[in-house]
Amino acid sequence: MAAHISIEHIRSLGGVARTFGAGSAICDYDSNAPRLLFILEGWAARSKMLPNGTRFVTEFVLRGDMISTSLTALSRETVQAITNVTVMVFPDFTSLPKIDTPALFYRIVIAELLRYQARMSERFANIGRRDALEKTGYLLLELGSRIGTSRDYANAEYFDCPLTQADIGDAVGLSTVHINRVLRDMREAGLLSFRNGIVAFLDRPRLMDIVDFDQSYFDTTMI
């Protein structure tokens, strides 16, 4: 099972590489050139600004994920680099139908759209039906599954996470103060630790059971 399209598949199709510095806009809803961008390295956030001036992160975009400037414009979202981000840029054949596109590229784009839809469905359920600890734990479990984890000297699974507590709060609809309290509660309960840019799963099976996490929705056999 793969949580994203392999970088090898993306590189094999050519395209133009481009790098964005941390904090810069990768695309927004005013973009007028239809493009498909695949993340080769780095983290980005797809977000909307609400009428009250607050930000809501609809998704974190990771290595292997696809960004459609057409979809971004339709959704009136902005995609901003959290770290330095390198993308591979392709013309968007869905908006420019006369482009001669390899069959593999069609399959990759369709598979990424399916993955995106599956993640969004889980996001809606997570935001609407879980409490603060559950929705935060679920988000971090999902990110760990998508980006991949390693094991440290204590044999705990972990992953490097460049997000701030404010980023996490914007993704689950909680204040930074509330996120700080939830992370402390999870650490004290022996479930998860988030310190110095590292998320460590102290008891991943128990956390998965508490939040009812099933990563099978990442799966697609199209590629």
From TrEMBL:
<dbReference type="InterPro" id="IPR036388">
    <property type="entry name" value="WH-like_DNA-bd_sf"/>
</dbReference>
<feature type="domain" description="HTH crp-type">
    <location>
        <begin position="130"/>
        <end position="205"/>
    </location>
</feature>
<keyword id="KW-0238">DNA-binding</keyword>
<dbReference type="Pfam" id="PF13545">
    <property type="entry name" value="HTH_Crp_2"/>
</dbReference>
<protein>
    <submittedName>
        <fullName>Helix-turn-helix domain-containing protein</fullName>
    </submittedName>
</protein>
<dbReference type="InterPro" id="IPR012318">
    <property type="entry name" value="HTH_CRP"/>
</dbReference>
<dbReference type="InterPro" id="IPR000595">
    <property type="entry name" value="cNMP-bd_dom"/>
</dbReference>
<dbReference type="InterPro" id="IPR018490">
    <property type="entry name" value="cNMP-bd_dom_sf"/>
</dbReference>
<dbReference type="InterPro" id="IPR014710">
    <property type="entry name" value="RmlC-like_jellyroll"/>
</dbReference>
<dbReference type="GO" id="GO:0006355">
    <property type="term" value="P:regulation of DNA-templated transcription"/>
</dbReference>
<dbReference type="InterPro" id="IPR036390">
    <property type="entry name" value="WH_DNA-bd_sf"/>
</dbReference>
<dbReference type="GO" id="GO:0003677">
    <property type="term" value="F:DNA binding"/>
</dbReference>
<keyword id="KW-0805">Transcription regulation</keyword>
<keyword id="KW-0804">Transcription</keyword>
